[in-house]
Amino acid sequence: MAVKRFYETFHPEHYDLRIDVNRKNKDINGTSTITGDVIENPVFINQKFMSIDSVKVDGKDVDFEVVEKDEAIKIETGVTGRAVIEIAYSAPLTDTMMGIYPSYYELEGKKKQIIGTQFETTFARQAFPCVDEPEAKATFTLALKWDEEDGEVALANMPEVEVDQDGYHHFEETVRMSSYLVAFAFGELQSKTTHTKDGVLIGVYATKAHKPKELDFGLDIAKRAIEFYEEFYQTKYPLPQSLQLALPDFSAGAMENWGLVTYREAYLLLDPDNTSLEMKKLVATVITHELAHQWFGDLVTMKWWDNLWLNESFANMMEYLSVDALEPDWHIWEMFQTSEAAAALSRDATDGVQPIQMEINDPADIDSVFDGAIVYAKGSRMLVMVRSLLGDDALRKGLKYYFDHHKFGNATGDDLWDALSTATDLDIGKIMHSWLKQPGYPVVNAFIDEDGHLKLTQKQFFVGEGEDKGRQWQIPLNANFDAPKIMSEKELDLGNYKVIREEVGHPLRLNIGNNSHFIVKYDKTLLDDILSEVDELEPIDKLQLLQDLRLLAEGKQISYASIVPLLTKFADSKSSLVINALYTTAAKLRQFVEPDSAAEKNLKKLYDLLSKDQVARLGWKVKAGESDEDIQIRPYELSASLYAENVDSIKAAHQIFTENEDNLEALNADIRPYVLINEVKNFGNAELVDKLIKEYQRTADPSYKVDLRSAVTSTKDLAAIKAIVGDFENADVVKPQDLRGWYRGLLANHHGQQAAWDWIREDWDWLDKTVGGDMEFATFITVTTGVFHTPARLKEFKEFFEPKVNVPLLSREIKMDIKVIEGKVNLIEDEKDAVNSAVAKAID
Question: Which segments constitute the Aminopeptidase N-like N-terminal domain (predicted)?
């Protein structure tokens, strides 16, 4: 049943907000004065956790009722047409990282806080009464007051105009925008600023706990990204400023508030002199993702949350497109292949997964659709597919049409396809509907039939049990031989195989570039032909080959044992893309062995065989003038070598630790995590773990914090494990935003798994209360599923999570994840002996 939207009762045009925040009392007092059109009575305005003191319409007190279950104020306006509704209210300052909330940090041993906001999806209603729906766009003026101390500054979507005699900071009126994009912050901040060539103010803001140089990288990327997007979209950035603010406590990665983008510190700030290349790439893509949203999401906003993918998928594609233009030497599209494509293929193969575009009626269900692997990763893969079909010139032409026709308004997916169709003869809408409105993706079977004809068939691919509903897709084949551009049929007969093979003179392959969202199962003749010339393949083709074989093995369409002999063919590659695919595949073999068993000892020997020559070639220390490829390959090889318990690697890492013990932060960031992990695992005790936890609390460098966490959670020491779990609920050690990483690290460590699993079951209510209002909450279940693969853990998982299956935010995740673990358990049971025999044979 459709839930009535509040926009149907009232169309806001302008908000005049006066907000007074008292940090000491942890409360907010304010008035929200909304000018707009009353469409029908009663009018419904959103509120959450508020006390409503009075409601006036056109200056007169009117009757109102607070309806908590609908997060609403029901107002009898007594008028229709244009009206001014003034609502006086008070509300608590929360610690949930939603609404208006404090962020905590330490400076010179003193605890401090800055106040920030997070309003997506439906948390603006915790800050001020509003029609909190994306379609209800309006302009906003903000007057902000707080218990101000010397040296503090305030930021908002627009520049500050003045401070009045009552201490209110007034900001310029915004352009027309949705309530979830309103943002403000205040506190003691440092900043660096610059201007684009068109005069837009670009700023990076952070607490003074950080070194000033940590702001430089983000400032440079943000400036160049805004300039790039203005040119690519052929549409000017419509605000006078683009400020980037790092908040010490932040639930998501970042948030695209118009003109004041907020970030988790780890995704904006970095030490330019000692941060890994991978981390620099990650930070750059987060910044460019949020700035892509300033047009795609902010200037043109989805009409309703069922088109959320429209915002996120597009920004996810554009982050790579822009970074590739800004830093071409980084080959950033390789990261797209190893992160977005891999995540989408894995998640989308589970029966019960959501489609990219799904119906949402009840606002309570909105957060449940933020499935990153689908809305972000699969969605961006769809748009990469569209881009490869259109080409950049047609894409830009179509986008300009889209922005020209929808700016400062709202749009749907079909509006985008209509705009793009103005630049091409292809029916983009028809192609995309087959991908957006149904879940999953196909495996294309390529085989030679008894008549010698090359045939292709499509069928939905599942990992684990799946119900085949006969779904069909419009598949861009991207073949390296003469084949249709789009496969829309269930089956294609492409003619005599020998004739086709002779004409092209090379092995036949589909999905060249790995840009289309399907996998290929070649029959033996076709696969053997490809493998006979495997050395001639480009790195992306080798990645794709391993990726498809790995997925086919997980879907039980081939045996994992058949992949094991292939691994050594890729071990000496000089491409980080290939090495990533190699170790992603090798890591899957770990699920077939028990810790400390003979089978695991064999697997470790295989890891040594795969990594020892590369470690010998690269060494443990980064060399001056090394290629980016070698810098990126080294971490994979060092990690593999340590898993292999290579004596030379253990010794080399220990020596580096000993030489740098007094200044671990200065260790080269590309090798630092492995040096620290090795020390904790092979030379550590509870005392060392305690020392590293104190170091974790001391440093403000977010990359170093991640390295320390990885090391600490890999301990074998039971006393240390107990102490770590004891810190999970101590926000002075582990901030709630970082807790999932700590939990996953300990859970993946077989010495710590029981303690971590016991903690989440015993303290679930605490976890729910602390981070349960957050769209990321369900990922605590996802990371548990990523680790579990035994019948005993499956049983415990079901016993604990099945009773929670009716919680809207968790329901889909629980149902899917039970299937995921069941699939792994069945796969291991069927394949274990064959895989372990293949590993034993490979090391002979």
Answer: 11-181
User: What is the Cα–Cα distance from 229 to 475, expressed in whole angstroms?
Assistant: 30
Host H or E run for residue 101: strand 99-107
Tell the burial category of 451 from Cβ atoms under 10 Å away from its Cβ (0-12, 13-18, 19+).
exposed
Which 3 state secondary structure label does DSSP give 801? helix
Which residues, other chains included, contact 691 with Cβ-Cβ below 8 Å and sequence gap of 6+?
none
CA separation for the pair 844, 842 (Å, rounded): 6
In the chain, % helix, strand, coil (3-state, to 5) comes to 50, 20, 30
Q: Facing residues of 227 across strands?
A: none
Catalytic choice (290, 600, 813, 831): 290
Q: In whole angstroms, what is the distance from residue 756 CA to residue 747 CA?
A: 5
Phi/psi of residue 609, each to 5°?
A: -60, -40
Give the 3-state secondary structure of residue 14.
Answer: strand
- Which residues touch 550 (CB under 8 Å, ≥6 apart)? 563, 584, 585, 588
Q: Tens digit of pLDDT for each residue in 36-95?
A: 999 999 999 999 999 999 999 999 999 999 999 999 999 999 999 999 999 999 999 988
* φ, ψ for residue 651, nearest 5 deg: -70, -45
DSSP SS3 for 283: helix
Beta-carbon contacts of residue 332 (< 8 Å; ≥ 6 apart)? 281, 284, 285, 320, 323, 324
Find, among 728, 700, 731, 734, the residue nearest to 102 by Cα.
731
The pTM for the full model equals 0.96
Is 251 strand, coil or helix? coil
**The Cα angle at residue 293 between residues 288 and 299, in degrees rounded to 5:** 145
Residue 2: per-residue pLDDT: 62
Residue with tokens 């069945």: 826
696 Cα distance to chain centroid: 24
Adjacent-strand bridge partners of 195: 201
Residue 492: strand, helix, or coil: strand
Between 779-787 and 791-801, two packed helices, what is the crossing angle to 10 degrees?
160
Query: For the chain, which ranges sit under pLDDT 70?
Result: 1-2, 363-364
Per-residue pLDDT of 270-305, as tens digits, reads 999 999 999 999 999 999 999 999 999 999 999 999
Q: Establish how many alpha carbons lie within 13 A of residue 277's alpha carbon, considering only the half-sphere containing its beta carbon.
A: 18
Query: Annotated catalytic, 13?
Result: no
